Amino acid sequence: MSNNDSNSHQSSRPITITVLALFICVLGIGQTCLAGFLPSVNTAGIVLGISLFLGGVVILSVKALWPKEFLGAYMYFLAGTVFLITAINGALGLGIAQHKVPSLFGALFVIVGLVFFFLGWLFLKKQPDRR
After folding, report:
1. Are 95 and 34 in contact (CB under 8 A)?
2. Where are the alpha helices (DSSP H) in the chain?
3. Mean pLDDT of 5-26
4. What is the pLDDT of residues 18-30, one digit of tens each?
5. What is the rounded distance in angstroms from the CA atom of residue 59 to the CA atom of residue 16?
6. CB-facing half-sphere around the CA of 108: CA atoms within 13 A
């Protein structure tokens, strides 16, 4: 008599990673619709939204990206991405930011976004090797 325990094959994606990846996909769809099609079709808004959407799809599909230890780094990268996309949208006057924003605000958003990317990189770097 064999004991087939379904928990012996822990290959399922953690729910937190799934929720984060789906959230990134929804953000990408929102970016595409708000900045790519409103008030008119804009290639930069569509490209940024599609890139964000594809990032979520990659997190959903690549099994090596599923460890829960990466969640903190993902949050830093997501925050950095949101700040950088906000800076680009504001600089180009896309979507909700239909009027050009002062370059000081755009520069501050870029700086904060890069800081979050740096923190995410540091977070990934200090993770122990998983070999």
Report:
1. yes
2. 15-37, 43-61, 71-92, 103-125
3. 78
4. 999 999 999 999 9
5. 11
6. 5
Q: What is the pLDDT of residue 94?
A: 72
Nearest-angstrom CA–CA distance, 72 and 51: 21
| Largest Cα span, the chain | 72
For residue 127, give every residue at least 6 positions away whose Cβ sits within 8 Å of its Cβ, in sequence order, or none.
69, 70, 73
What distances in angstroms separate CA 65 from CA 8, 53, 77, 91, 106, one per listed residue? Answer: 20, 16, 14, 32, 31
Judge contact between 89 and 38, C-beta under 8 A.
Answer: no
Is the pLDDT at 8 greater than 50, yes or no? no
Q: Which of 27, 49, 21 is nearest to 36 (CA)?
A: 49
Chain mean pLDDT for the chain: 83
